[in-house]
Amino acid sequence: MRGWCEIETGKCTKQRSNNNLQTVCEDILVDKATNFYAGLLHSPPVAYKEELLPLLEECAYPEHSKGTIVRTPTSDDIYWKLHNLLKKIIREA
């Protein structure tokens, strides 16, 4: 998770700029121009690519909040959709 600090006061707040699920999706699973490596799911199975990539994007950037410092947390609904889809992909592999 990433914290949020007020430059004016020099103090960090209790507010987080993302949650753990967003961090996993953003920093590990999806490709980012600032990453020096490809995300772990940068090349998903063709049969699932159309469903998986938008789901990962929504996981990392809820409500299309890419570039926003403080984001809405990723919903439980997105977590379960991603969880179930990844389980399905693994079972069929």
From TrEMBL:
All copies of domain FAM69 protein-kinase, residue ranges: 4-61
InterPro entries, A to Z: FAM69_kinase_dom
Entry protein name: Protein FAM69C-like isoform X2
Organism listed in the record: Crassostrea virginica (Eastern oyster)
Organismal lineage: Eukaryota, Metazoa, Spiralia, Lophotrochozoa, Mollusca
UniProt gene name: LOC111136899
